[in-house]
Design goal:
This protein has helices spanning about 5-10, 20-30, 35-40, 50-60, 95-105, 110-130, 130-145, 145-150, 150-215, 225-285, 290-330, 350-360, 375-400, 405-460, 475, and strands at about 80, 85-90. It is mainly α. It has one domain. β1 and β2 (about 85-90) form a beta hairpin. α2 (about 20-30) runs parallel beside α13 (about 375-400), α9 (about 150-215) packs antiparallel against α13 and α10 (about 225-285) runs parallel beside α14 (about 405-460). InterPro entries: DDB_G0292058-like.
């Protein structure tokens, strides 16, 4: 048996070793253990499963229509505005406009109520300008003039107004707290996903650092292996840079959107609270700028309904994401969620790793059984290089098959999903409560303002007291 055969047998656990390199190979076998054959196949050609994995990853990277991905979190109860309002029967797919259209359409209740409320406000403004409506309103006011003077008519609307104002203020306080919880949970989810991407890039740099060290060790002994290692390290470095840039851009966009949403939430909640207090005060203090307060509050109520619809959509997106992550953990093969994962950009690295495996299998030449010191040094250098590369192979597999991101996804599903969904539910429920009470408050304000106007009118036309009688003649003589 030749020395080449013995060295290959030593590396692949299939036999004994020659005396000159026995200690190195025994140490190699002892450090590798059983997983060695898994990470470094002994066959001359790669297995069919490996070729299929590489082919699927290439299709995913190229985004060709031949890629057959499994849909996650399928839905059939949503209308798709991009498909003539037919039911969307697909799953969670962030690259599909039909998914985004169907999930955005779930907020249509809030948008429809906001539009109807604005139209009703415009009709009311037109009605106020109409003379006949004014005459009708004056006739109704004259008929109810006696009832207007009653104490029950004065107290009942203000009691209801006080109750609605209390509910609205409580809803605004809950909305403030829910906004803080929402931004906190969104930041936590962002930290988990960004950390997974950064860990992937750090692992790539660790692998390329090992390859750069090894390639210099084998430069004088195997030029072909050196070129393969250098090419692999260079391409992995470029992939790491691409993943890092994509992570940075995505994080920046995510933080900008989150900041805008947080500012809008705080501004809307603050304006709601301010107008509720102004309307409550103007009702009892009988301010004459009451009409302007109603107009501004009417417009803000429509905006609050829009925010309700928006966060109702966010609720469904979060629910779909958590369900898709949960299904991905059960069967993480060929899913549409790959675009969310940082290892999706590492699809082409499988090809580089397989080329490096082949180069490692055939890196040793046919040496005689007895070798001199220089040949022994070459064999030792190649053996140490192979050992360093083999130590990095589990990490390489974690990058290529996305097993590296399983723990972050488990963290999102088991730890972050429920608190995030609870925070989002509190936001849209708080918006629904505040919007509904604002509608009732505006109606109560209009009734109270009408009462104040009638009272001012009655006070202005009240009969004056009769003048005192002239003094008598007898009193004048005295």
């Amino acid at each position: 048996m030749s020395l080449k055969g013995m060295l290959l047998v030593c590396l692949l656990y299939l036999g004994s070793q020659p005396q000159y390199v026995r200690s190195s190979c025994v140490g190699l076998r002892r450090r590798l253990g059983a997983p060695f054959q898994t990470h470094f196949p002994i066959a001359s050609d790669d297995s069919a499963s490996e070729r299929q994995l590489v082919y699927r990853r290439e299709l995913a990277a190229a985004n060709t229509p031949l890629a057959n991905f499994r849909s996650l979190a399928p839905r059939d109860d949503r209308l798709d505005p991009f498909d003539y309002f037919n039911h969307y029967r697909g799953g969670y797919d962030i690259k599909s406009k039909h998914y985004w259209g169907s999930v955005a359409f779930t907020g249509i209740p809030g948008y429809a109520i906001a539009a109807a409320w604005l139209v009703l406000g415009l009709l009311d403004l037109l009605a106020l300008r109409c003379c006949c409506c004014r005459c009708l309103w004056g006739w109704m006011s004259s008929k109810a003039s006696k009832w207007l003077r009653s104490r029950a008519h004065y107290c009942a609307p203000r009691t209801i107004l006080s109750l609605l104002s209390t509910i609205s203020v409580a809803g605004c306080v809950v909305l403030f707290v829910a906004c803080q919880k929402f931004t906190s949970q969104a930041s936590n989810v962002e930290d988990v996903l960004v950390k997974a991407a950064l860990d992937a890039t750090n692992d790539i740099h660790s692998i390329t650092g090992t390859l750069h060290e090894v390639k210099h060790s084998v430069l004088h002994y195997d030029r072909q292996l050196y070129q393969t290692l250098n090419s692999t390290a260079t391409k992995l470095d470029s992939i790491a840079v691409a993943v890092n840039e994509k992570t940075f851009v995505t994080k920046k966009i995510y933080q900008k959107v989150l900041t805008i949403v947080e500012v809008v939430l705080l501004v809307v909640a603050s304006l709601d609270l301010l107008l509720i207090l102004l309307g409550f005060a103007s009702t009892f203090l009988k301010w004459r700028c009451f009409f302007h307060i109603i107009v501004v509050t009417w417009t803000l109520t429509a905006l609050t309904w829009i925010m309700f619809g928006f966060f109702l959509t966010v609720h469904y997106i979060a629910d779909d994401t958590c369900l898709a992550f949960k299904e991905y953990l059960q069967h993480p093969q060929d899913t549409t969620i790959d675009d969310l994962l940082p290892c999706a950009n590492l699809a082409s690295s499988d090809v580089q790793f397989l080329q490096m495996r082949k180069a490692m299998k055939y890196c040793l030449e046919d040496y005689p059984f007895f070798v001199n010191q220089s040949t022994y040094d070459a064999i030792s250098a190649l053996t140490r290089a192979l050992q360093s590369i083999l130590d990095a192979f589990p990490l390489m597999e974690g990058l290529t098959n996305c097993s590296l991101v399983l723990n972050p996804i488990k963290t999102v599903v088991n730890v972050r999903c429920d608190p995030a969904k609870i925070a989002i539910n509190r936001v849209w429920i708080a918006f629904a409560v505040v919007s509904s009470t604002l509608v009732l408050l505006i109606i109560s304000w209009c009734l109270a303002n009408h009462q104040n106007s009638e009272q001012r009118h009655l006070n202005s036309v009240a009969p004056h007291q009769s003048p005192p009688p002239p003094p008598s003649r007898s009193s004048v003589q005295r």
